[in-house]
């Protein structure tokens, strides 16, 4: 190194540089420590991002839990219909539509058979239990 380059680096002219050789154990140790710190920061940021992504959040505080809701209570109705009639029975269709207007929901149908022939159908309905006004 010449004197001009040493002066430009902040060293007084004629003074030897305080730099250590590039293969110095001290420099290798500092580089290793620096790399470990950088790796730790990268891992911490990645872990935080993964947790936020998995929670579906944007980093904001989670919403307050909702007040507990009482489970729904239901009324049930079974409508029995003789199967001897023709499919498309207008009386049955009218009865089912009327129940729907009253808030009943059809939730199932069971056919009863005798000797391989359907003899009757049972239609099961439900609707929310109506509570009397207080």
Quick structural summary:
The protein is α+β, with helices and mostly antiparallel strands and 134 residues long. The protein is built from 3 helices and 3 strands. The longest helix has 31 residues, at 25-55.
The helix/strand order is HHEHEE
* Count of domain modules: 2
Q: Helices and strands: which structural class? A: alpha+beta
Average residue pLDDT: 77
Cα gyration radius (Å) = 41 Å
Helical content class: 25-40%
Tally of contiguous helical segments: 3
Number of strands: 3
Spatial shape? elongated
* Biggest β-sheet: strands ordered side by side in the sheet: 1-3-2
DSSP strand content: 15-25%
Q: Which spans of ≥5 residues are poorly predicted at pLDDT below 50? A: 1-11
The biggest beta sheet is recorded as: 3 strands, antiparallel
Distance between the termini: 98 Å
């Amino acid at each position: 190194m010449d004197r001009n380059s040493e002066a430009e680096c902040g060293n007084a002219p004629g003074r030897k540089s305080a730099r250590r050789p590039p293969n110095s154990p001290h420099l290798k140790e500092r580089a290793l420590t620096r790399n470990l710190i950088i790796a730790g920061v990268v891992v911490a940021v990645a872990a935080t991002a993964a947790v936020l992504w998995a929670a579906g959040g944007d980093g904001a505080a989670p919403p307050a839990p909702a007040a507990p809701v009482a489970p729904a209570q239901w009324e049930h109705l079974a409508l029995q219909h003789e199967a001897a009639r023709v499919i498309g029975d207008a009386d049955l269709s009218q009865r089912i539509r009327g129940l729907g207007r009253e808030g009943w929901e059809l939730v199932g149908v069971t056919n009863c058979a005798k000797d391989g022939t359907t003899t009757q159908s049972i239609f099961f309905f439900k609707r929310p239990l109506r509570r009397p006004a207080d």
